[in-house]
């Protein structure tokens, strides 16, 4: 159990902010004639502004995830939720966040954009949380800790026990990015939301759901945190097309599940094939839809693959990922092409 007085960590200008009130905020209910939002009255599919709080879509997500609607915030990608967390809870030039490395680059970029100090610490050599180091970094300016599980670019889940210790001992928000959770056989941390008021979980439709192009990020947290994010978000941040496509896609979870099974099978095959290559030094185990591969002369392999039209991610200059390429699992045909190209280097 962890209580959090959200007011204590909310920036004072955000606490006192009078939010923009859109036409769709001011009138709720059924009506025949809408002359309140300066829309074009001639009907096309998209002449009306979208629902600013995406209620229909949130009901579908609520059902699917077992999370009440008032625990859900939706962003234009997870990236929007990350930015709004900084803008809500971190005073520029004063507050700080903790980001264990290596991890997803957007946390640091978003911190830098918002002029919020980043306290970095290394993950352990097997890319798990270094609990002692992280706890040494807490101080009374620390507002957010970002934990990515499964972690990008290493692909592993973080230890549940260590994550729970961090949540229990930290008096700011612990943000767990579960962009790749669908590829694991664990349910992640959603079931802990009621117990820990300082827990924020990010998920996305960009990976397993196959919808990176529509930009929909899901943020789950206790309603006091969600209220703040709603207060500062752009009024119509999720467009109508995204809302419609997401409602349809989320109603077809079996399709996502069969993609996930196929990707996991391909991942295991690809790991095995990569392991047999002479250039390979180590293939890290993956709980995600990508593989971190330590190879001989990563930069030159990367460039030779590019020359053949095959693009992987060069992570060889990233702390703890020296000599590594990050390879997304493709279709069986794409993976075959990659392996053949790497065999012929
Ligand atoms: C890909 C990815 C995301 C997805 O971000 P969106 O803005 O929702 O597309 C978030 N977090 C991590 C760690 C990722 O790798």
Short description:
It contains 13 helices and eleven strands. It has 345 residues and is α/β, with parallel strands linked by helices.
Q: Count of DSSP E strands?
A: 11
Q: Could you tell me how far the N terminus lies from the C terminus, measured between alpha carbons in angstroms?
A: 55 Å
The mean pLDDT is 97
Structural class by helix and strand composition:
alpha/beta
Description:
The chain has 345 residues and is an alpha/beta fold. It is built from 13 helices and eleven strands. The chain has a seven-stranded mixed sheet with strand order 1-7-6-5-4-2-3, with helices on both faces. Helix 4 runs parallel beside helix 10 and helix 5 crosses helix 6. The longest helix is centred in the last third of the chain and has 23 residues. The termini are far apart. Bound molecules: pyridoxal-5'-phosphate. Pyridoxal-5'-phosphate binds next to helix 5. The site of pyridoxal-5'-phosphate has 13 residues, from helix 5.
